């Protein structure tokens, strides 16, 4: 499934849901996407208040489904469900730094400290599915515990096909520049993640020995970045894209849930445009779809079709 110089869209909690992925696909039909991280507990139990538990990926192109958890059996069961729902590969989250995941749940970045549990999870997921398995991790828990290379070797031994390395420690969260190390003598391909925004960033990580690059926060408000980073142009009809994204969100979540969630996207799309601060203030408390669509149409000078 893997080729060199591959570009991926990162899994971003609360961002890379189905509506956002639909917009990305309009500009980059072949880019490899990764879902928001999915709780193995929520997925296996079929929690109805989480729509992504019921996504079908058969029409979602090349997409990996990312799961997190600390229960070996539930992680393997979750992987099988996602495979049956059409995921092209399973990605295991071993880097999420937020306390509710990395400390209280013993998952995500915690697995950088518990390599025994990490190995058992990877091996169980690999045995459970017939599609590739990858991991996404960080440099280490903190600067005193930089152990990414050891964890990636374990992943390879347990059958993982490739890994993604975010160039920060758990202690850094998302603060400070990413520090991507040179890749030498790793048993599986490594994808670079962290502060990748331009074509020169791609060239830099390829020179460091990475086999691909994963774009994360740079796609906020710019879902066309996967095209423009390779020389494509920025779309002129941004307002129409925002309205279409909002429409997809309403179809997926329902208006009551979608509009408060979508306001952050509207703000990201507006960044760098004249009067964007005033626009963000106006939309911040809107809960009505018609009202939000009107503000978007006014700001970008487009026709409202919601």
In short:
The chain has 306 residues and is of the alpha/beta class. It has 2 domains: 6-228, Alpha-Beta Barrel (TIM Barrel); 238-300, no CATH class.
Explained architecture:
It is a single chain. This protein is of the alpha/beta class. The chain has two domains: about 5-230, Aldolase class I (TIM Barrel, Alpha-Beta Barrel); about 240-300, no CATH class. About 40% of the residues lie in helices and about 15% in strands. The chain has helices at about 20-25, 40-45, 70-85, 100, 115-130, 150-155, 200-205, 225-230, 240-255, 255-270, 275-285, 290-300, and strands spanning about 5-10, 30-35, 40, 65-70, 90-95, 135-140, 160-165, 190-195, 210-215. It has an eight-stranded parallel barrel with strand order 1-2-4-5-6-7-8-9, surrounded by four helices. Helix 1 links the parallel strand 1 (about 5-10) and strand 2 (about 30-35). The protein is globular. The two termini are about 40 Å apart. The mean pLDDT is about 95.
């Amino acid at each position: 499934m893997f080729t060199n110089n591959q570009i991926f869209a990162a899994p971003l909690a609360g961002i890379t849901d189905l509506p956002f992925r639909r917009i990305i696909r309009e500009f980059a039909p072949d880019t490899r996407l990764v879902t928001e991280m999915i709780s193995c507990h929520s997925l296996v139990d079929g929690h109805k208040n989480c729509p992504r538990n019921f996504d079908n990926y058969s029409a979602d192109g090349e997409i990996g489904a990312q799961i997190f958890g600390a229960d070996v059996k539930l992680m393997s069961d979750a992987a099988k469900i996602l495979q049956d729902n059409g995921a092209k590969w399973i990605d295991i989250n071993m880097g999420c730094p937020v306390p509710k995941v990395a400390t209280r749940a013993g998952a995500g970045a915690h697995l950088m400290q518990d390599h025994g549990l990490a190995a058992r999870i990877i091996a169980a997921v690999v045995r459970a599915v017939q599609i590739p398995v990858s991991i996404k991790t960080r440099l280490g828990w903190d600067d005193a515990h930089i152990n990414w290379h050891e964890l990636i070797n374990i992943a390879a031994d347990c059958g993982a096909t490739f890994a993604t390395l975010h160039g920060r420690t758990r202690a850094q969260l998302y603060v400070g520049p990413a520090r991507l190390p040179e890749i030498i003598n790793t048993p599986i391909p490594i994808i670079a993640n962290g502060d990748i925004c331009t074509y020169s960033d791609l060239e830099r990580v390829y020179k460091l020995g990475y086999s691909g690059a994963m774009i994360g926060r740079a796609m906020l408000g710019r879902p066309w970045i996967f095209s423009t980073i390779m020389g494509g142009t920025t779309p002129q009809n941004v307002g129409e894209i925002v309205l279409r994204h909002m429409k997809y969100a309403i179809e997926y979540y329902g208006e009551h849930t979608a509009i408060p969630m979508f306001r952050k996207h509207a703000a990201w799309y507006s960044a760098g445009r004249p009067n964007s601060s005033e626009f963000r203030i106006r939309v911040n408390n809107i809960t009505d779809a018609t009202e939000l669509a009107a503000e978007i149409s006014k700001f970008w000078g487009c026709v409202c079709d919601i």
